[in-house]
Amino acid sequence: MITAALLAALATACALGAWRFTTARWTSRAPRVAIILWQSLGVAWGLATTGAMLAYAVQPYGAGVLAGLHAFANGETPREPWDLMHVLAMIAGLTALTVLVVVLLTAGVQALRARRRHRLLLALISHDDPGVPGVRVLDHPSAAAYCVPGLRSQVVVSEGTIRLLSQDELHAVLAHEAAHVRERHDLVLLPFAALRRALPWSKVVRDAQDQVELLVEMAADDRARRYCSPRRLATALLRFGTAGAMPTPHGMIGLHARAHTVMARVDRLVKPGPELSRRIRYGSIALSVTLLTATPFLWVIQL
Amino acid sequence: MVVKGLGELERSIMDILWAETNPLTAREVGRLIADRDLAPTTVMTVLDRLTRKGFLKRTRDGRAWRYEPAESRDAYIAELMLEALDLTGDRSAALTRFAQAVSGTEAEILRRALTELEDE
């Protein structure tokens, strides 16, 4: 009972923490620390929510979550007889766990498929440009610069981008994309995109995804500024933002960036804020480590 | 046009078919490829591969197949650009992007910031 209560408390704390964290102001000063905290909150929330239901469900076995589930799977008879509440908790817990796992796997498979098709098409229609070695160029007047992640990631820019930006700005954009490739930001984004699909009505999940997307861009900006002028990266961002959107076949259904997210990135490139205080930095890391160890621990032991 | 490798060959064949208005047979495609040493079976293999990937459509013409692109080159470029700009509406995490355009009135804020940065 204690395990189930602790897990339930942890799940609630994670949900409340995530809700509070969506409005935290320090995150743009240390995007990587914030990303780690978001990931830990996500993992801990998932494990705690499902774990709380399952811990209650396997109570008749008098063992921990994992041991109890193992006994249940082997068809062992519990020490105490099943009652309705425990059966319902078992159904709810197993369903929630399955949904989470399936949603994650589906998102992964879909991303891989979309990338595969994208790569095949790129091989047929993109071309090289001696001005930007190692980068695939698309014949299109709109501005786009992106990366197709994978074991052999590809950076792609459109003709429109090359025309829009100066040489230095283009260099800055490529440094930014190289940072995405190097830090495999696609893997950071994937679970949040998956969770968004699983819980489309949840405002916290939506805000979390928006936050993580922005933080990943900021992390890439931070790495890029080591290799290029931050000012040029900022002007490149502003030029992209004002370049005019591309019309879509179904009208403007696309999700357009808001000016304030672009400005948030520009501001910190032009006027970097003070370093994040040690208290918050180490506090966040300690919190992440605690979350990531406490939940699996509660799955294994029986209190 | 000297052709190297299978990927390069796929590109050249698509380019040839995109440039034509009518569907072509494998023999006709082979004639249009500059590399004269190419075995006819190689052209057939590549046409078959591209058909299986869904980039070509083929129709029977007597004993031969006639091939044509499933979509125009511009349609494929548009498809990639929509994904690149995250305008497909499904917001998957398949790609990582540099930045997106801001619409209408909000763009004005950015335009002003850009002027300021350029003036300094």
From TrEMBL, chain A:
Entry keyword annotation includes Secreted: no
GO molecular function: metal ion binding; metalloendopeptidase activity
UniProt record, GO biological process: proteolysis
Pfam families in alphabetical order: Peptidase_M48
Record key words, sorted: Hydrolase, Membrane, Metal-binding, Metalloprotease, Protease, Transmembrane, Transmembrane helix, Zinc
Annotated cofactor note: Binds 1 zinc ion per subunit.
Protein's UniProt name: Zn-dependent protease with chaperone function
Segments passing through the bilayer: 30-47, 85-109, 280-301
Gene3D superfamilies in UniProt: Metalloproteases ('zincins'), catalytic domain
Organism, scientific name: Nonomuraea pusilla
Named cofactor requirement(s): Zn(2+)
Residue ranges of domain Peptidase M48 in the record: 114-190
InterPro entries: Beta-lactam_resp_regulator, Peptidase_M48
Superkingdom: Bacteria
Family assignment from sequence similarity: Belongs to the peptidase M48 family.
From TrEMBL, chain B:
Keywords: DNA-binding, Transcription, Transcription regulation
Entries under InterPro entries matching the protein: BlaI_family, WH-like_DNA-bd_sf, WH_DNA-bd_sf
Transmembrane feature ranges: none
Superkingdom of origin organism: Bacteria
GO BP field: negative regulation of DNA-templated transcription
One protein family per Pfam: Penicillinase_R
A GO molecular-function descriptor: DNA binding
Family: Belongs to the BlaI transcriptional regulatory family.
Name assigned to this protein: Predicted transcriptional regulator
Naturally occurring in which organism (per UniProt): Nonomuraea pusilla
Lineage, opening ranks: Bacteria, Bacillati, Actinomycetota, Actinomycetes, Streptosporangiales
